[in-house]
Specification:
The chain is α/β, with parallel strands linked by helices and 220 residues long. The protein is 23% helix and 18% strand. The protein has one domain: Rossmann fold (3-Layer(aba) Sandwich), CATH 3.40.50.
Length: 220
C-alpha cells in the first residue's frame, strides 16, 4: 500500500507504516527528524496526486484551533455582532489566515485518494466541514498524556484504543488556567521549537494507525 503522511516532519507515522512493509512517505516544508524513510521536503501539492492509497494529514492548526479565535477580532468589540467587529490590532490578517488554513485542510480532505484521515485539535473545522468522526487521546494508546485529537475519516474505521493508561498530570498556571503538564513542559527555546515539540504525533497513536489501517479494502 502506498501511504502519504502530509505535514509530518517527525517521521513517526511514516516509520510505523514502513515497519509493516508499506511504501510510506512523509512530506513537510521542514526536513524530517527521522532519516529511516523517504521524505519529500516541499509543497504537498507537488506529490498529492501521485496515486496514493492512504493519506494521513496533519495540517497546521494555528489558525484552525478554537483557542485562536480570540485573536480574530478587536478585544473592545466583544459587545458587537461578529459582522461589525474590527480585526484584532495585533493580527489584522487573522481572518484571511484562517480562511487559507481552511482551504488547505479541504484540499487535503478532497484529494483523489481512497482512504483519508485528517487530524486537528478541536476547532473551526467541526462547523466548516462537520464534526470529527472521533476524538482520541494518547492515553488511549499507552502514553499518559491528555491531548484531544480530532480525526476526520474517509473510508477508514475509527481507531480502537490499544492500551488505556492514566490521563497524565494537569498543572495550574499563574493565570489559573489548567493545562496538561506535557504541554507546559515543552522544551524552552523559540516559538517554532515549542510548536514542533507540541505537534509531534505520539508514538502509541502512530503505531495504532499503522496497525489498524494496514489492511484496507477499496471501500469501507
Amino acid at each position: 500500500m502506498r501511504v502519504l503522511v502530509a505535514c509530518e516532519y517527525s517521521g513517526r507515522v511514516r516509520d510505523a507504516f514502513l515497519d509493516r512493509g508499506h511504501d510510506a512517505w512523509s512530506c513537510d516544508l521542514l526536513p524530517t527528524e527521522s532519516t529511516r524513510g523517504p521524505h519529500y521536503q516541499g509543497d504537498i501539492k507537488d506529490i498529492l496526486y501521485d496515486g496514493w492509497d492512504l493519506l494521513i494529514a496533519h495540517p497546521p492548526c494555528t489558525f484552525l484551533a478554537s483557542s485562536g479565535s480570540r485573536w480574530l477580532y478587536h478585544p473592545d468589540d466583544k459587545h458587537l455582532p461578529v459582522e461589525g467587529r474590527r480585526p484584532h490590532p495585533l493580527y489584522p490578517n487573522r481572518k484571511k489566515d484562517r480562511q487559507d488554513a481552511i482551504d488547505f485542510f479541504m484540499m487535503l480532505w478532497n484529494a483523489p485518494i481512497p482512504h483519508i484521515a485528517v487530524e486537528n485539535p478541536v476547532g473551526v473545522m467541526s462547523s466548516v466541514l462537520r464534526k470529527p468522526d472521533q476524538i482520541v487521546h494518547p492515553w488511549q494508546f499507552g502514553e499518559e498524556v491528555s491531548k484531544a485529537t480530532c480525526l476526520w475519516l474517509k473510508n477508514l474505521p475509527k481507531l480502537k484504543p490499544t492500551k488505556i493508561v492514566g490521563k497524565g498530570e494537569i498543572v495550574t498556571l499563574s493565570s489559573g488556567k489548567k493545562i496538561p503538564a506535557w504541554y507546559s513542559n515543552a522544551p524552552s527555546g523559540t516559538k517554532e521549537e515549542r510548536q514542533k515539540a507540541r505537534s509531534r504525533t505520539f508514538k502509541g497513536m502512530a503505531e495504532a494507525m499503522a496497525e489498524q489501517w494496514s489492511n484496507l479494502e477499496n471501500t469501507y
